Amino acid sequence: MAKRERRVGYGWPVLLAIGVHVAALMLTLIKWPESESDPTSSSVVQATLVRAETATDQPQQTEDSTPPASQSEEEDAPEPEESAPSEASEEPEPDSEAETTDSAVEEAKAEAQRLQEEAQRAAEQRAEAEQQRQEEAEAERQRQEEAEAERQRQEEAEAERKRQAEAEAERKRQEEAEAEKKRQEEAEAEKKRQEEAEAEKKRQEEAEAERKRQQELAERAAQANNSSLDSMISDEEQSIANAKQASEAANGFKNLVRRYVEQSWNVPSNASSELRAIVRIQLLPTGELVNATIIQSSGNSAFDHSVINAVEKAAPFRAMRELDASVKGQFREFNLDFNPEDIR
Amino acid sequence: MNDSMSIPHLIMNASLIVQLVMLLLLAASIASWIIIFQRSIALRRAEKAYQDFEDRFWSGVDLNELYRELPAEQESHGAEHVFRSGFREFNRLMPKTQSTDAVLEGVQRGQRVALSREEDRLQLHLTFLATVASASPYIGLFGTVWGIMGSFQSLSMAQQATLSTVAPWIAEALVATAMGLFAAIPAVIFYNRLSAHAGRLLGKYENFAEEFHAILHRNLQGRSEREAS
């Protein structure tokens, strides 16, 4: 027992290990061609196959048709040669015997008949072979003609397709060009409209300015001419007019700011229509927001918060720059009141 | 295509360092397979020998007879070796001392030495398998990296970087990784299997040593009581 156990040497294991490696190598060698035959049959070979069919179609047919003809000729040709030697071998015999001349003559006649028949048969076979050749040639011609006709048809079809495609492309081009023209025209028309609108605005402004000048001139004349009472009355009137203008401009700017703020206002969903908050807004001359504070709370802190947020979101108010310097002073600081009903 | 991408062709066309790596991996693979076969045969035989010995031990045979039947010290293995060294120690100590503790201690020491030798013998060369298992993927990776470096160097020479200029290099480089894995996977599997087998066998030897020790202890206890009476 113990002796056997000790003899577990390295001979067998070495052989087995090498055997395992050789088997693995064989597996890799054997499996390679099998696995590679599959990919070659996929896409590449299909393309070459199509070409091979079209390229070798006619030559194959001609080869097929010519060999039978040559074979038939060869078959035809040897037959007379074979019959000629047989005649030569058979003919001398009656000559040498020279006794049964009649029979020889008959035999000769029979042979002549046989020869004629064979010649006729050969001729018929040749004729048949030629007919076959001609038929095959005609069939080939027909095939070629058909193939050419098909090719022509395909080419015509392709040409028509191309023409249609070109025509469509041209149509598209024309349509695009027309569309562009229309766009340009529209753009020009809009420009004109805007220009006209601006011109009208200018005209109106000029007219107003002239009116003011005339009023001022008239007032000055009135002041110069009239008594102090009149001048006081006119002063009052002027101040009233100025206040009106100022309030109008102020209302315009306020409404603008209100619109901006309301656009960016997320009214809380639980806000009732009775809520009302007044916000004090402080602005720089450039329209940037300095500060926004609630001066009269609505009582709902979420609502107040949303209003402040909306003001901060809507800032800066660039319309401030376009205001007159005199009016600007009013809007460094102003109040706005917000009510959810304004939006809903 | 068919010829240039086959594995032997790739190996023959590889650069020198990649070829050396492949050779190293092949040698490691062959060596690990030799060890796998040798160890699995040796362990199977050791297990069979242990079962035979245990059958004989528990068949009621006289221990002195069994000791005499067994072959000489150098040729005995496994449980026989444990039994022999313990029993020899017992026989030598019995005439010299009256103390049962001293005798049992000597027996235990002899068995321990035998067990550690057996452990050594069972796990012979298994560390080599572990080394192959852990190192050969890295060696193969080194070959692959080197091959791909070469492929990029050749790419810098080429005017146009087509797939056909790079593909053979990369395929050839990847063969090195494949070979590394080919060497490593069996080594890992069989290292685990064989070391588990060896550990199981060693546990059996230890159990046997304890049982044998218990028998001797019982024997000595009986003898001392007889002497006392």
UniProtKB/TrEMBL annotation, chain A:
Chief site of localization: membrane
Biased amino acid composition, Polar residues: 55-65
Return the Acidic residues bias intervals. Answer: 72-100
Chain segments annotated as transmembrane: 12-32
Q: How does it sit in the membrane?
A: Single-pass membrane protein
Task: Report whether Hydrolase shows up as a keyword of the record.
Answer: no
**Transmembrane as a keyword?**
yes
Arranged from A to Z, the UniProt key words for this protein are:
Membrane, Transmembrane, Transmembrane helix
**Positions of region (Disordered):** 34-230
Q: Where in the cell is it found?
A: Membrane
Taxonomic superkingdom? Bacteria
UniProt feature, compositional bias: Basic and acidic residues = 106-219
- The name under which this protein is listed is Cell envelope integrity protein TolA
Q: Which organism is it from?
A: Chromohalobacter beijerinckii
> Its encoding gene is what?
tolA
